[in-house]
Amino acid sequence: MLEAFQSEFMRNALLAGLLTSLACGVIGTLVVVNRIVFISGGIAHAAYGGIGLAFFLKIPPLAGAAGFALVVAMIMSAVTLKNKKRADTVIGVLWAVGMAIGIILIDLTSGYNVDLMSYLFGSILAVPRSDLLMMAVIDGGVILTVLSLYNSFLAMSFDEEFAKAMGVRVGMLYYVLLGMIALSVIMLIRVVGLILVIALLTIPPFIAEKFCRSLKEMMIASVALNCVFSLIGLWFSYSFNLTSGAAIILVAAVFFFASVLLDQVRNRLPRA
To answer: If both were cysteines, with which of 64, 96, 169, 232 could 50 make a disulfide (CB 3.0 to 4.6 Å apart)?
Structure first.
């Protein structure tokens, strides 16, 4: 495996995996504890509309996806805050409409010959240095935001009514959270693709939650697990000539089912 990293594309892939692990471990933890996995999936799939728009307007695909995902995230924030009972319907509609817009705009793009699979299922081995810089900037923004608002996120995540009573602007915080989810999704597009994004956002926090006693510990553990999944997935991908994004997700799935099995075994053991 070490000889593989003599190639620039493998070094870029490794850095991409580690950079995305940082932001997605932190944001994924907030996604899981706030129970907004479906919203995250809606943002991820709707972002495909931004990719189609980017090709139609001949601008960088990830820039188009980022702008589109942020707009969708703000719409979802407004809807879910005002009418939570109908939120799942609106999210499902935006999910479908976003993907439909992307497909139609790509159909209308003249001279289009881009591999759709790289955006649906990831292309971590093709990550350029410019994308690594973008990932580093998003990481910095996410970490600074979470650190500065950590106590507010903590209060909102575990007791929203208490957070409001303490003067936390829960509505504004919710918009910020969904905006960071949108940016994290854009990072993951290059690693595992739109279809598989939700797995890396949710599997590490799900596992970490069983063994951590605080939100901070859960974030750190989720980052570490994401790094492990990326490294092992890249190794399998290189060794057996597999699609990298799918390999990373399958590694995460093995750990997921192992944690569920371990949890069941622990629950059945007699307690002293």
So the answer is: 64
Give pLDDT tens digits for 209-244.
988 989 999 999 999 999 999 999 988 888 888 888
Q: Which residues lie below 8 Å from residue 21, measured CB to CB, with a gap of 6+?
A: 223, 226, 227, 229, 230
Residue 150 to residues 4, 50, 168, Cα–Cα distance (Å):
39, 30, 12
Q: What is the pLDDT of residues 175-203, one digit of tens each?
A: 999 999 999 988 888 778 877 788 889 99
CATH code at position 88:
1.10.3470.10
**In one letter, which amino acid is 168?**
V
Which tokens sit at 50? 């931004």
Residues in the chain, total: 272
What pTM does this model have? 0.88
SS3 179: helix
3-state secondary structure 100-121: HHHHHHHHHCCCCCCCCHHHHC
Contact predicate 73/45, CB 8 Å:
no
Domain that holds residue 99: 2-268
Alpha carbon distance 270, 272 (integer Å)? 7
Domain count, the chain: 1
Query: How many angstroms separate the CA atoms of 261 and 265, rounded?
Result: 6
**Mean model confidence pLDDT for the chain:** 86
The span from the CA of 267 to the CA of 108, in Å, is 56
